[in-house]
UniProtKB/TrEMBL annotation:
Family as reported in the entry's similarity comment: Belongs to the short-chain dehydrogenases/reductases (SDR) family.
Organism, as annotated: Mycena chlorophos (Agaric fungus)
Name of the protein in question: NAD(P)-binding protein
Stretch of the intact protein here: 412 to 620 of 627
Assembly: Homodimer.
Domain N-acetyltransferase: 66-209
Localization terms from the record: Endomembrane system; Endoplasmic reticulum membrane
Amino acid sequence: RSPLLHRNHHHRRLLAKEMPFTPDNELDLLFPASLISPEVKSQLHTDLHVRRPCHPISPLLKTRLPQIRPLASTDHGRGHLSVLSVLTVATDHGEAAWKSQFDALRSAPNTYFGLVIVDKASDRIVGAGTLFIERKFLRGLGSVGHIEDIAVDKAQQGKKLGLRIIQALTHISEVSGCYKTILNCSDANVPFYQKCGFEKKENEMAKYA
Ligand code: ACO
C-alpha cells in the first residue's frame, strides 16, 4: 500500500471510529439553534486554527472542530453532568430524572437557554452554560438575563471555550431584549469575567435552606 493510500485508509478508519457525532437537525433541542450567534460559532473554529497557524484547516481537522449548540434532550448520555462537576458535586439521578428536568425547563418558553460545546470527534460535551431570562414589571416591563453554571472540562480549559460560551449567552440575552446581563462568581473568576467584558457591580447575598 502506498503511503498516501495508507494515510487515507487511516483517516477513514479514524472517521468511522471516532465520528458518532450527531448534527443539530437530528437532535431534540431546548431552544432554536438559530439563536446561537454565527460569529461565535465561527470564532470557535478560528480559535483552534490560530493555535496551529502554520497548517491550513485539513478536512480531518474540520470534522474535529468543536460545535456550540443548544442543550439536547439526549445530552445526559454525552457527559453533561461530568462537565458540570467542575462547579460542584454533580450527583447523577439517572437519565429519566435528567430528561424530566429538561422537559420542565423547555415548558417555560423563552426562559431557559442552556447551551453546550461538543467535541465532534467523541460527541462528548466539553463545556456548558445557561442563561435564564427574568421578566420584570419595572424598566418598561423589561427583562434581565442571568448567566448561570458556566463549566469547561478541566482538560479543555484555557482554550477560549469559556469566553465563547459567555459571548453566546450574552448574544441570546441581548437579542431577546434584556437591558442587562448579570451573574455571580467567586473572586477567583473575576478576571475571567472582566476579560469577557463584564464589570464588578454591587454585592451578592445568599441564604441557604
Ligand atoms: N483568572 C484570570 N484569568 C482567567 C481565569 C482566571 N481564573 N480564567 C480564565 N482567564 C482568562 C484566560 O487566560 C483568557 O485570557 P486571554 O484572552 O488573555 O488569553 C480569558 O480569561 C478567557 O479564558 P477561557 O480560555 O475562555 O477560559 P476557560 O475556557 O478556561 O473557562 C472557566 C473559564 C469557565 C472559569 C473555567 O476555567 C471553568 O470551568 N472553571 C471551573 C468552574 C467555574 O469556576 N465556573 C464559573 C463559575 S461562575 C458562574 O457560573 C456564573
